[in-house]
From TrEMBL:
<dbReference type="GO" id="GO:0016887">
    <property type="term" value="F:ATP hydrolysis activity"/>
</dbReference>
<dbReference type="InterPro" id="IPR001757">
    <property type="entry name" value="P_typ_ATPase"/>
</dbReference>
<dbReference type="InterPro" id="IPR008250">
    <property type="entry name" value="ATPase_P-typ_transduc_dom_A_sf"/>
</dbReference>
<dbReference type="GO" id="GO:0005507">
    <property type="term" value="F:copper ion binding"/>
</dbReference>
<dbReference type="GO" id="GO:0055070">
    <property type="term" value="P:copper ion homeostasis"/>
</dbReference>
<keyword id="KW-0067">ATP-binding</keyword>
<dbReference type="InterPro" id="IPR059000">
    <property type="entry name" value="ATPase_P-type_domA"/>
</dbReference>
<dbReference type="InterPro" id="IPR023299">
    <property type="entry name" value="ATPase_P-typ_cyto_dom_N"/>
</dbReference>
<feature type="transmembrane region" description="Helical">
    <location>
        <begin position="711"/>
        <end position="731"/>
    </location>
</feature>
<protein>
    <submittedName>
        <fullName>Cation-translocating P-type ATPase</fullName>
    </submittedName>
</protein>
<dbReference type="GO" id="GO:0005886">
    <property type="term" value="C:plasma membrane"/>
</dbReference>
<dbReference type="Pfam" id="PF00403">
    <property type="entry name" value="HMA"/>
</dbReference>
<keyword id="KW-1133">Transmembrane helix</keyword>
<keyword id="KW-0547">Nucleotide-binding</keyword>
<feature type="region of interest" description="Disordered">
    <location>
        <begin position="273"/>
        <end position="292"/>
    </location>
</feature>
<dbReference type="GO" id="GO:0005524">
    <property type="term" value="F:ATP binding"/>
</dbReference>
<feature type="domain" description="HMA">
    <location>
        <begin position="4"/>
        <end position="70"/>
    </location>
</feature>
Length: 758
């Protein structure tokens, strides 16, 4: 017994105020040692002393605050999110309907009757019923959050909302039963409107979060559900993975995923280990070599001894790294929330002091307590101080930026991405599948005793029956160049080395230079080219016909067409590009040199990638990470901004804040520019909102601001923020005609962009 760590996926968080409330609640709970909250991924990591607290009590704190704890299973979690969305929509329909009715009544009073005061007792009672119904039916959950926050001494947006709502309710009741001159309907209207607005803002946030997490695929789906275990008597038995123990033997056939971490005890095969290393060219495995669960057995049959199971297995370790990095990722407090941290208690204090002032101050000039003026002042302060425009300032800028990004095939999953991107000074890029295409392809054909077409024709004929990925690259190159080749008369594969074949009565060898040398082939005339091609990070295959070396084929992972231009744009923006890869140093340096990256980290494992990102952050750098593979997922989560290539794995996408649809690398800098512009709009919106709130609260303290005018001022502030967010976009045609931006992408990227926009 001692320190225990629990992680929860939490529903109901809508802004960083929620994250701060959860942190404060746990910090004031005896037995809690540490808590980390990730708003972007809606996760909470709690470390506590299990001698003092139980898991039930730890969960109880979240539930008391009004938040839900979702099922750890991703499929069930998604169902819960959909249920939350349905509940939110139902609450909004109820509150919205009440608001429409109240607005109609107010309009009828002002326009038709030409008066602010209540027209009849029936109208007062109808409005009272709508206020009570809105506050205690769709708005009941807000009261739970506000009460539990107040009980713990936490002042947040829920407390301020309920202060305004109850102030309106009390003011209306005073007008109904005590002070006939009070504008009863308008007091009750305040309770309805601000409750509805809050429900609307939370529903909008929930929509964004639910739709952004639809790429829900489990990391461990890479592992088959069962394994083919070989018993001591040689019998084969299908068993579930959790039924395997260290020391068991399993057989894996060509094309199957390797179910567990282990060591090859029999067989030879090419194994695609990009799940761990990111390297697109398969590794040759033979007796004594280690294999990783989740990697793909390409060619031969392997007998594997299990060396790790459960939490010790590679994929489980990666999953744990992702969870820890996500939950412990430094929280980002939005610009508005930094101010709101002090704004909420400030507004409550000013409202209370305004009421007291008009109760006491008139005594100084011989009058009596002015209850109506004090009530007007307190309610108007709460209405004008309620951060409607402030709350909308950031989301509206993000919605505008998100729509613009979607038109370019970019999905901005997290508001933090807009907030942080302008401060990013290092962008770390994975190599395979990010800077490069991610598939082996022929980069160069060197003719040494024949022309290039002859070399490619001979190699393609020899490899026609091979199932090796490098053979596929040679055949694809031959097809692209319309080279005609025939099937070999005889064929044999030498695992991990190359192939032997008979082509048009000639003996042909295609394979590694070392193997060809062992076969007695003179490679001297190709030594310089072999060294040059390997220096470029290419895998070299020699082509031998009739005992003579006739050519060399360099095979590698092709660099994306826009990679060099993207790196140049980073440098122009004073951002330092860094390459990080599990590939070998020689290949990594060759690729980096070609596109202009000066700093390279090679031979890096998934957990080490995350550590490297952490070191940059500890050196006070803002870091964005770009990747596409499972081995990138922990680093994507650790980085201040994780950017996933949409053509990559689902777990990488799920771990990221930004997703680039398709495989175009230039989207990284497009996202940067959009994020920078959106942050500028956010600051303008906040300045506008604070101007309205500041002037409005100051004017409200006089007690001369009628509740209806306070509501109109609040509407004006929201309208000003809306105009700033979207007027320029409409005038410029952004988001209206995106033809030219879309035409710069491929057909597939256009479809992806449209899907993101939808």
């Amino acid at each position: 017994m001692g320190t225990t760590q629990e992680q929860f996926n939490v529903g109901g968080m809508s802004c960083s105020f929620c994250a701060e409330s959860i942190k404060k609640a746990y910090s004031r709970t005896d037995g809690v040692e540490d808590v980390d909250v990730s708003l972007a991924h809606e996760e909470v990591l709690v470390q506590y002393d299990d001698n003092i607290l139980s898991e039930v009590e730890v969960k109880g704190t979240l539930r008391d605050l009004g938040y839900t704890i979702r099922d750890p299973d991703k499929a069930k979690r998604y169902e819960q999110q959909q249920a939350e969305l349905a509940d939110g929509k139902h609450r909004l329909l109820l509150a919205g309907g009440a608001s429409i009715v109240v607005a109609a009544l107010m309009g009828w009073m002002i326009v038709v009757m030409g008066r602010f005061e209540s027209a009849s007792l029936v109208m007062d009672l109808v409005t009272l019923g709508l206020a009570l119904g809105t506050m205690f039916v769709p708005g009941r959950y807000i009261k739970q959050k506000a009460f539990q926050s107040l009980r713990r001494g936490i002042f947040n947006q829920h407390v301020l909302l309920e202060a305004g709502a109850f102030a309106g309710l009390v003011g209306g009741l005073l007008g109904l039963f005590v002070f006939p001159s009070f504008p009863t309907v308008h007091f009750f209207a305040v309770s309805v409107f601000i409750t509805t607005y809050h429900i609307l803002s939370e529903y909008t946030s929930l929509i964004v979060r639910t739709r952004a997490s639809q790429a829900v695929q489990g990391l461990l789906d890479l592992q088959p559900d069962t394994a083919r275990r070989i018993g001591e008597d040689g019998d084969v038995e299908e068993v579930p993975l959790d039924g395997l123990d260290v020391g068991d033997y399993v057989r894996v056939k060509p094309g199957e995923n390797i179910p567990v971490d282990g060591e090859v005890v029999e067989g030879k095969s090419a194994v695609d280990e990009s799940v761990a290393t990111g390297e697109s060219i398969p590794e040759e495995k033979a007796e004594g070599d280690e294999v990783i669960g989740g990697s793909v057995n390409e060619t031969g049959t392997l007998l594997i001894e299990v060396t790790a199971t459960g939490e010790d297995a590679f994929l489980n370790q990666v999953a744990r790294e992702i969870e820890e990095a996500r939950a412990m990722k430094p929280g980002i407090i939005q610009l508005a929330d930094r101010v709101l941290k002090y704004f909420v208690p400030g507004v409550l204090t000013i409202a209370a002091l305004s009421f007291l002032f008009w109760m006491i101050a008139p005594l100084a000039w011989g009058g009596g307590p002015n209850i109506q003026r004090g009530a007007f002042a307190a309610l108007a302060v709460l209405v004008l101080g309620y951060p409607c425009a402030l709350g909308m300032a950031t989301p509206l800028a993000l919605i505008r930026g998100g729509g613009k990004a979607a038109d370019r095939g970019i999905l901005m999953r997290s508001g933090d991405a807009f907030q942080i991107f302008p401060d990013v000074d290092h962008i770390v890029l994975d190599k395979t599948g990010t800077i490069t295409v991610g598939e082996p392809a022929v980069s160069e054909v060197v003719a040494l005793g024949a022309d290039e077409v002859d070399v490619l024709t001979t190699a393609a004929s020899a490899e026609a029956f091979s199932e090796h990925p490098l053979a596929d690259a040679i055949l694809e190159a031959a097809d692209e160049q319309d080279v005609e080749y025939a099937d070999p008369d005889a064929f044999g594969s030498v695992t991990g080395k190359g192939v032997r074949a008979t082509v048009a009565s000639d003996d042909v060898l295609v394979g590694k230079p070392g193997w060809l040398s062992d076969e007695g082939i003179d490679l001297s005339k190709g030594d310089a080219d072999i060294e040059r091609l390997q220096g470029r990070g290419l895998t070299v295959a020699g082509v031998v016909r009739g005992g003579d070396l006739i050519g060399l084929i360099g095979i590698g992972d092709e660099i994306k067409a826009d990679a060099a231009e993207t790196i140049r744009r980073m440098r122009d923006a004073d951002i330092t590009p860094v390459m990080i890869t599990g590939d070998n140093e020689r290949t990594a340096n060759a690729v980096a040199k070609e596109i202009g990256i000066g700093r390279v980290m090679a031979d890096v494992l998934p957990d080490e990638k995350r550590e490297e990102i952490g070191r940059l952050q500890e050196a006070d750098h803002r870091v964005a990470m770009v990747g596409d593979g499972i081995n990138d997922a922990p680093a994507l989560t650790q980085a201040d901004i994780g950017i996933a290539i949409g053509a990559g794995t689902d777990i990488a996408i799920e771990s990221a804040d930004i997703v680039l649809m398709g495989d175009r690398l230039g989207g990284v800098m497009d996202a940067y520019e959009i994020g920078k512009e959106s942050y500028r709009k956010t600051r303008q919106n906040l300045a506008t909102a604070f101007a309205f709130n500041g002037v409005g609260v100051a004017a409200a303290t006089t007690g001369l601001v009628h509740p209806v005018f306070a509501m109109l001022a609040m509407v004006l502030s929201v309208s000003a923020v809306l105009a700033n967010s979207f007027a320029g976009q409409l005038l410029s045609g952004e988001g209206v005609n995106t033809k030219f931006a879309l035409d710069e992408r491929t057909d597939g990227e256009r479809e992806d962009g449209r899907a993101a926009a939808d």
